[in-house]
Automatic annotation (TrEMBL):
<feature type="signal peptide">
    <location>
        <begin position="1"/>
        <end position="20"/>
    </location>
</feature>
<protein>
    <recommendedName>
        <fullName>Polymer-forming protein</fullName>
    </recommendedName>
</protein>
<keyword id="KW-0732">Signal</keyword>
Length: 177
């Protein structure tokens, strides 16, 4: 019985998370809500996180528990907000759970050696990246997230385009020279 309740709670939480990823603006020609297709990876498996953040992965990756990746992790590829190629270039790593009202209910830690960011406009939201981050693209963002190590940018241009003021970097922020 407990397993059935836990599974039911997980399905409800997953539905709430996916609903929050959808802005509700999808309509068909007659104004009715159309079927929204959201390519997301919601997991607590390290190999699935790595695959989802690869060039062949998803625009959003959400972890549902603390995850440890042995070694480095590369975030690669160009993705679009909600997989809509007419929309903005955007990619997100969600390190949290939320309720149906979009209130953060739990935050998680992704432990890596170094996260290498090769995706433009990559946002880490909530939670913690335990390791270093090396940024090789424009538009890197921390949104209520923490990086326990250093954040190093491959160029001044990449650093100038970053938004770090809503997050915390416990190590140094610098440009690779």
């Amino acid at each position: 019985m407990k397993k059935k309740l836990a599974a039911g709670a997980a399905v409800v939480a997953l539905g709430g998370f996916l609903a929050a990823c959808d802005n509700g603006a999808d309509t068909d020609d007659n104004g009715d809500n159309g079927d929204a297709v959201t390519a997301a990876s919601i997991t607590d498996d390290a190999s699935e996180v790595e695959a989802s953040l690869s060039a062949d992965g998803n625009w959003i990756t959400a972890i549902t528990a603390d995850v440890t990746i042995d070694g480095d992790l590369t975030v690669a590829g160009t993705f679009y907000d909600k997989d809509d190629e007419d929309g903005d270039v955007y990619r997100k790593l969600a390190l949290y759970d939320q309720d149906e009202d979009r209130n953060v209910t739990n935050e998680y830690t992704l432990s890596v050696g170094t996260m290498i960011v090769e995706s433009p406009n990559f946002r880490i939201q909530e939670g913690t990246v335990d390791g270093d981050v090396y940024v090789e693209e424009d538009g890197f963002e921390l949104s209520n997230a923490t990086v326990t190590g250093d954040v190093t940018f491959a160029s001044q241009e990449f650093m100038d385009s970053a938004l770090l003021d809503e997050g915390t970097v416990e190590g140094e922020v610098s440009v690779d020279e």
